[in-house]
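Re: Re: ligand-bound prediction request (bumping)

Still looking for help on this. To restate: I need the protein modeled with iron/sulfur cluster bound, output as structure tokens. Inputs repeated here so nobody has to scroll up.
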Amino acid sequence: VAELGTPTRCVITTCAYCGVGCSFKAEMNGDQLVRMVPWRHGKANRGHSCVKGRFAYGYASHKDRILNPMIRDTIDEPWREVSWDEALSFAATRMKAIQQKHGRRSVGVITSSRCTNEETYLVQKLTRAVFGNNNTDTCARVCHSPTGYGLGKTFGTSAGTQDFDSVEHTDVVLIIGANPTDGHPVFASRLKKRLRQGAKLIVVDPRRTDIVRSAHVEAAHHLPLRPGTNVAVVSALAHVIVTEGLMDEAYIREACDWDEFQHYAEFIGDPRHSPEAVEGVTGVPAAELRAAARLFATGGNGAIYYGLGVTEHSQGSTTVMAIANLAMLTGNIGRPGVGVNPLRGQNNVQGACDMGSFPHELPGYRHVKLPDVRAIFEKAWGVEIDPEPGLRIPNMLDAAVEGTFKGLYCQGEDILQSDPDTHHVAAGLKAMECVIVHDLFLNETANYAHVFLPGSSFLEKDGTFTNAERRINRVRKVMQPRNGYEDWEITQMLANAMGAGWRYTHPAQIMEEISSTTPSFTGVSYERLEELGSVQWPCDENAPEGTPIMHVNGFQAGRGRFIITEYVATEERTGPRFPLLLTTGRILSQYNVGAQTRRTENTVWHEEDVLEIHPHDAEVRGVTEGDWVRLASRTGETTLRAVLTDRVSPGVVYTTFHHPATQANVVTTDFSDWATNCPEYKVTAVQVSPSNGP
Ligand code: SF4
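Reply:
Sorry for the wait, this slipped through. Here it is.
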């Protein structure tokens, strides 16, 4: 701070890492960022922060930033720096040529859940109004797409039900497949405070995460399930509640579809769902499951928090629906202290989904096949919208390998490193005739790109992010974009190079368009955000100041729906060659593939990925603490160091995916959620053997 001088001004903005959405004061000396100070009036964080938000912003000025556009005719050639005009003209000419030759559906877009709402809205508009198809997807595909599907089917709204404040009224916290201490640290602190005050904790996780046993916190029940058996565990909890008569019948009659409930009760009451019947499959002792079910049903206000350990499975959407069933069954909806709360990984996963960056949905989760929905956007945009849903990310890559998908605009997303089955992603990218990467850095995907458009960091742009509690927070420009343009401007320039004629001059205008076309956003404007600080959607004439807790007087979209959730084992099986199950996660100090955190001048960020293995499994393989090991699956292999720990059960190993040197996704499979294609990152059959190192 001394070197950077005394701050002379400050700008309130929002952290661009996780879905907690902490507010910060960016303290500036001229155009120099002196420090980030957590803002005490921030409604999501109330003056708290974690190390990433507070210290890991150095990447914005890192020497690796690319500041000028670049093009090349083939991916074997070196990059040529060119003007913005030349790069955009090159990109537009190639994309138009591809569409003329291969049809309008031969190109598409992938955007990032790190981008602002306004950027995301423009990218899906580019796809639909300029490219003329629905091939638009977001990296939410690989994390929380099952949340959108599952909560939409059961509750009628694809979002978490509560605000963060709600946890202060919770008596029993059920955490499934989430590690808030590392993934959502500021919310984890509030959660732990409530636990220290006496709330009970149930954790469903194959790994003994920090929250299971930390200072002054001890879970009443840790259910260390075998990876891939979430549905069996949640169904067993529901089975106990139904067969022991612990459900909240009055709530179900009042708020839910009673006929569907009766059908569900018959299904879930079947003995095949009992804790005793599933013990062999899940690995969780039946007595523990029964005790946990009784605690959740009778312990007072029960709140469910879940993460990617739920969604990133072949039954991700089924588990989300099973969780929703459990909440309705126990009447834990519609008041403080209860609810279903997906902990969103990235800063704007909620917003990316809200903004229609899915190939089947326009903004506001409305299906593109519905003529009256298309009519709203056709009138606003002055174009005809393709009624056919587009391709999801994995379908785009499959189609590229097959030769029918030829052009991709990839904004803020390193699909080569973050998507499963790296070799298949590379083959898809290599087969395309035009790949446009729009990013801060020459990421791994850019190795296959023909056009590189330099992006702006969150410090260099205006816009909004929507956090895990549906809170729309302002992102404010702290300094001028080092690359010359904000990201929404770059998308607009690309659209105009294709002939669009867009004339936005500020993201506030984009938000006006969003609120005029999207019912749950009709009350959202930059003026309202200035006035209130932030708002939680739905924000409309019925709730002009937003909606902290949803479904208070019954479900907002009709009656709650119990969905049948049959457990189906993943196709990924262990066997003699691959006898262990790998599951993955994050550490506090790193973020996803590390593109930002690894480029911050602080050595703590540079920890390597390691493999956690139970001492018994290590011993039989001749592996000792710190040894290099080879981690191999049916898909690929990598090398990393072993850490011996009983955090994981025998038969289970665990690693993180933060470092390109490890490329953990080389080993993950291409199995995915049946409803949404969210990859099954959390279950891979592997073998571990001693190695001499990479
Ligand atoms: Fe940023 Fe999340 Fe940390 Fe808050 S908890 S500072 S939003 S990374």
